[in-house]
C-alpha cells in the first residue's frame, strides 16, 4: 500500500479530533471523558481525569469561567451541558481523594516566582511536580489575594485553603509581604536572578518600569514577553500573570493556562531544551469533529434544587447524562462491519496498513480486511467522504499481489464465479433467426441462478419488443475477482468478455444486475453497458396489477446501484406501473449491502449476517429489490422479499414470490445449468453436451441448510458418496449404522455421514477442512 | 457452526477392511507445513478419520494461524 495514500485516508477521519469542550478549554481538560464517568456514577474516575490536568481543583471547580459550555454541542439540543456546575459537584464530592506526589528530579533546580496569583502558583505547582525547588514572592499579605475579593460569592475560603495546603505539602516556599524590587538587595530582581536558575515574573496588571534595566519593556511599560514561549529579553527571566493581558476580561482558567505555559518554558530552559520545538500547548481552539446533533432529541438542562449549593451528586449525574457524548462515528453507526470490529476508520486504516506492512509475524487483520462489503455506505455518510471500501480493496490487492492474503476467504466464491464462466452456464448467441444483435442481454450470473424461469421470460419479452435481434450472453462480469482484490485475474476476465462482445458484433450490452452494470462500466469503460430496467420502463409494461404488489413494498436498492439514479427511478416507475405501493427505506443514496457485496459473506458470515439483519430490521413491510443476491439474502434471513421481476413476471404457478426460499449455492449452480439447457433446447433446439449428473442421493432440507452455512456443495457431497459406494472405502459407525466417507476436491476435504435406506443414500451431516491428513507408512 | 454430533471412535470400523479404527501416526499438512499427529486410522489400509469437532476446532485454528503467518 502506498504510505502517502494511507496518510491521506487517515487524515480524512476526524473521529480523533477533540470534542468542542476540550478544544475550547485552554488546559484541554477531557470534559467528555470526565462527564461520561460521572454519567456512569464513577466520581473518583471522573475526578482523576479532572485533577490530572487542573492544578487547583477546589478553586477552579468553583470559579472556572468554563469556556467549554460556550461551545457545547448540546446547546443545539436543549441547552449546553452545565459542565461548570458538574465540576463543582465533582470537586465537592471527591476532593478528599486527591493525591499528589512530586517527581524526584535528578538535579533539582531553584526557581523564583514573583506573584502568588493563579498564574504564578500554577507555574509553582507544575515546577514542584517536576521536582524543582520553588520560592514564591508575594507583595500582598496572602497568596491568591484577588480570589478572596473578586470571587467571594462563589469561592469558599476553605477551597482556597485546601488547594494552598496541597501546594504547601508539595514543598512550596511562599513568602508574603515580599515585594520584589529592581536591582540588587535581598528582594532585588538581580539578586533573585543570581540566586536562582530561573525567575518567573507572574505580575498583575500595570507597568513594571522599575524592572527596565534588567528586562526589556514594551512601549506601554509592560515587560516584553514572547506570547508563545513567555520568554523575556533576559534568558533566565520569564513573564506571565495578568500583566501582559491588559484590558482583557480576567479568566481564571486563562490565568492557569498562562502559568502552565510559562512553567513549561522554564522546565525546557532548565533542561537546556528549545523553548519552541515540538510544542503543542496551544491553548483554547476549535475542532472539526463532526457531531450529528440532529440525531439527539432536545433535553433541557437540569436545574439545581438549591441554586446556591449547586448540583447534588444525583443532579450532577442526571445532567452528565445529557452529554451525547460528542463523537462523529457516522460510518460506525451505519456499518455493522466497523461496529463488529469495534473500530473507526482512522484506527482501522492504520491497522490495515500495519497488517499489509508486516514482514515477519502474524497478520491479524486479514479477515477484517476481507470482511468489508465494499458497499460505499461509509463514504455516503462520512462528513469528509472517506471510503473504507477503497482502503480495504487496496489492501486486498496489495496482499493478494504479494501472496499474503489467504485464498480460503474467497475460494468458494471464486469457484462459483468459475462455474458461471464455464460451459455449464456461459453462452453467447444471437437471437434465433438473427445473424446480428442490436442489443446483447447480459442477465448476470446470480439472477439466472435464483430465477431461471424469469430470465427466460424476460429474454423472450426483450426479443419481442426490440428490433434488430437481441443477443444473449450468459457469463459473469468478474465482480467476485474484483472484490477479492485479484486485479490481474479480473483484467483477464474483462479481456475475455471484451472478445466475446466483439465476436457478437459489438452491440450495446443490457444487464439485469446492478453489480454487472457497475463492474462492466469500470472494467470495460468503452463498451456501452446499460441497465435493463430503464429500457423496460421506456418500452412500457403490459400487466396492470401484479398479484405480488397487493401489499405495500419497502424498496431496497442494491449497494452497487447506490449512485445509479436513472436505474433507481426506472425501477420505481415500473413498480408503480404494476400497481405497487412503494415505500422508501433509507433512500437509494443511503442503501446498505445484503452481505454479498465485497464477498463479505464468504470471508465473514457473522458480519454479513449482521449487515443483512440490520437492514431487515428497518421495516415490517415486504421488501422489493432488483438484485437477486439481495432478495435471496433477505429470504435466507427470514425476510419476505420480492425481486422486481416477481412483480413484472409473476410466478406462473401463482405461488407467493415473497415466500420463495433462498435457493442456496448448490441450487444456484443447478439453476444456471438448467437454464442453459432449457434455452438451448427451446430457442436453438440443441441438447447440452454436459447434462447435470443424475443421482439418487437425498439431502434433507435441514442438512442442506447446514451445508450452505459451511459452504459445502451438494455436488461435492454426492461425489463423495458415489465414490465411497463404488470403492467401498468408507467407515461404518456400529452404533448408528451410518457410513462416513470423505473426498478431496481442490483445496478442500469434504466428509459426509450418511445412511442407506433401501440402498438410497440419505445425507445426515457434512463438514470440511482444508488441511490434508495422511497415515504415516 | 453447529455442535458436532460425532460418533464414538470405538464404534467406527473400516468398511472395506472390516477392522476397528486405532489411534496411529498421521501427517497433517497445510500450506507446506507438516505436523505429526495421532488420529484414528484403519490399521490395515491407513484410512484416517477426522471428526467434525476436530475439523472445525483445533484443525481450523491451525489452518487460520498458518494462513495469517
Automatic annotation (TrEMBL), chain A:
Lineage top rank: taxon: Bacteria
Domain Cysteine-rich: 439-520, 554-630
Protein keywords: 4Fe-4S, Iron, Iron-sulfur, Metal-binding, Oxidoreductase
CC terms in the record's Gene Ontology section: plasma membrane
InterPro entries in the record: 4Fe4S_Fe_S_CS, Cys_rich_dom, DPD_II, FAD/NAD-bd_sf, FAD/NAD-binding_dom, HdrC_iron-sulfur_subunit, Helical_ferredxn
Gene3D superfamilies reported for this sequence: Alpha-helical ferredoxin, FAD/NAD(P)-binding domain
Pfam short name (any one): Fer4_17
Keyword Transport: no
Domain (Dihydroprymidine dehydrogenase): residue spans on this chain: 12-92
Chain ranges of the FAD/NAD(P)-binding domain: 102-241
Keyword Cytoplasm listed: no
Annotated GO MF terms: 4 iron, 4 sulfur cluster binding; metal ion binding; oxidoreductase activity
Name under which the protein is recorded: Aldehyde dehydrogenase, iron-sulfur subunit
UniProtKB/TrEMBL annotation, chain B:
Classification via InterPro entries: DUF7479, DVU_1557-like
Domain of life: Bacteria
Pfam families membership: DUF7479 (PF24292)
Occurrences of domain DUF7479 (ranges): 11-69
Name recorded for this polypeptide: DUF7479 domain-containing protein
Naturally occurring in which organism (per UniProt): Consotaella salsifontis
Organism placement in taxonomy: Bacteria, Pseudomonadati, Pseudomonadota, Alphaproteobacteria, Hyphomicrobiales
